[in-house]
Amino acid sequence: MVIDTGQESPWCTTELMAPMTAAAARAGAAEAPPVVLIERADVLVLRVGDVVVKAHPVETDATALLSRLRLASAPLWRDILLPPLPIGDALLTCHAGRTITAWPYGEPVDPDDPDAAPWEPAAALLARLHALPVPAHSLPEAGGPARVRRAMRRLGAASDVANRAAAAVVCRAFATLPESGATARTLVHGDFHLGQLVREPRGEADPWRLIDIDDLGVGDPAWDLARPAALFAAGILEPVTWLRFLGAYRTAGGVAVPRGADEWTALDIPARAVAVQAAALAVVAAGRDGRELDDLDTALVDACQRIAMASDLS
After folding, report:
1. pTM score, two decimals?
2. Which of the pair, 164 or 248, is modelled with greater confidence?
3. Computed from CA positions of residues 54, 118, 123, 283, in that sequence, does the dihedral angle turn out positive or negative?
4. Long-range CB pairs of 307-313, under 8 A, 24+ apart, other chains included
5. Proportion of the chain above pLDDT 70, given as a percent
6. Could you give the C-alpha distances from 215 to 53, 65, 196, 204, in angstroms and in order?
7. Distance (Å, whole) CA 127 – CA 131
């Protein structure tokens, strides 16, 4: 649901367990022991029976999040976004500066069965999201570009980065990135990857739903395709898988890369930016864990090297 930010959590899980369990009960959870699903940086996600509760990052703008929750609750979006559960008579609650939300539990994508990964349903969901009308009420900017800047700040602030050469490569690649000029302004998920999909628990014909709306907003829809595009360009995502995803998006009428157009005209800058973001977080995580870069980390840093070299030659 979230990306490891490379930061140590200033919060202890035990401090949040009781208020989050209480929020789950107010959202309709049956009595059950809480199970930690995610504990990364300053994000904590628990499952209590069939309810999932999330303690959002400390810096979360509760007003912006509430506008996103209201959108996800509206009937028009319910077959695309997993709707939140009310916590009592509200869509969120707060405890000691932490914003807490509740959601129905949905079955996530199985990371151990890559052949069954729902690339086509994911692409269709994104295409449908991008086609929906932008709501009249205020909605924040989609969070994709801001996530890249946050990743670079974390890389710059990390004191335990062991591979300084890799960090320098990432910084050089980041310096080459131009401002992304949006060719369209649509609803954008803002942080799409397969971990942001779950099966709708009610057993519907098209069961997949998008989750984690922390970066949902108005922006360039190409950013929602940027991570698969970046992984393909880095040699991490198989070409046949990328073509399945891209083809399904186009078949569903996706506006970011319509049929007959060169996809890289729209995807090049967002894909490069997301590759830099992923490489920055990989370098930070390796240093924090006291390990060498693994093959995936190295592929991302190598992609940054190519980005920097391409800029030098242009």
Report:
1. 0.91
2. 248
3. positive
4. 307/173, 307/176, 307/272, 307/275, 307/276, 308/169, 308/172, 308/173, 308/175, 308/176, 310/176, 311/176
5. 91
6. 18, 9, 12, 26
7. 6
Q: How confident is the model at residue 7 (pLDDT cuts 50, 70, 90)?
A: very low
What's the pLDDT tens digit per position in 75-124? 988 899 999 999 999 999 999 889 999 999 999 999 888 888 999 999 99
Closest CA to 174 of 308, 264, 293: 308
Distance of CA 310 to CAs 119, 177, 180, 305, 313, Å? 30, 11, 17, 9, 5
Ordered domains of the chain (ranges, CATH): 1-105 (3.30.200.20), 106-314 (3.90.1200.10)
Compute how many other C-beta atoms are within 10 angstroms of the C-beta atom of residue 59.
Answer: 7
